[in-house]
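Q: I'm teaching a short session on how sequence maps to structure, and I want students to see two examples side by side rather than one. Could you give me a first protein with its sequence written out and its structure tokens following it? Keep the formatting plain so it prints cleanly on a handout.
A: Of course. Example one:
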Amino acid sequence: MRVYLDDERETPSNYVRVYWPDEAIALLKTGDVTEISLDHDLGNDERGTGYDVLLWIERAVYTENFVPPLIYVHSANSSARLKMQAAIENINIKASSERGSI
């Protein structure tokens, strides 16, 4: 399953659209997500941002040996994009080291 987290943009074909981090995390928990594309700003920071999804993935990789999907960022928020890319790099490094140690 390919997941697209965004509040405004048109959903690309072959993606499942979600609007909030908790919806994306619920799908990630199923283990069926192969790709996820994240926007940062979702219109209500109290409900969360795309970065919150990355924090969940990172925590799951470190504490539950979660295998992350391919992760993309499509946010126009340049500073948030940099923060999100750094989180993705960390997730990928940890996930790669876990796969290498098995």
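Q: Perfect. Now a second example for contrast.
A: Example two:
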Amino acid sequence: MIFNQTRIPGCFLIEPEPRRDDRGFFARTFCPDEFAATGIAFAPVQTNLSRNDKALTLRGMHFQDPPFAEAKLVQVARGAIYDVVVDLRPESPAFRHWIGAELSADNLNQLYIPEGCAHGFLTLIAGTDVLYGMGRKYVPGHARGYRYDDPAFAIDWPNAPAAISPADLAWPAFA
């Protein structure tokens, strides 16, 4: 795996290195030793699947309050997304900055999101399945979020969402 540090400290775009032959390919998507060698202490304790029937479905911007903050390893099993991370750590040099990356079943890329960051995505293809490896189990009552279109972040989404939940529309502004 190739670990590419983003401008958000501790957030990595990870490129698996598939071994291809006439049957297809085989690729490692998680290895605790390789993560540790990059300085990432991550041990998934829960795996989640998000099925998205429509293109331009937006989910986000989500996080959990400390001490229940979650690190995530996000990958696409089917389809494609524009994945976004916003750094919410006041002590970070990237505080309130965001990064975006296209993750797809074709490019195999993953995004490692450290604790203290909000996460969201926009599906680019109908029938997109997103897998999340979680560093901490979900704790009810501690889920939080901010609006996907919050001017405090000025995220440049590639398209306007066509489907978004009432709950995601109800998140407050950061300010």
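Q: What should students look for in example two?
A: Point them to this: The chain has one domain: 2-169. Also worth mentioning: The CA atoms of residues 63 and 144 lie 5 Å apart.
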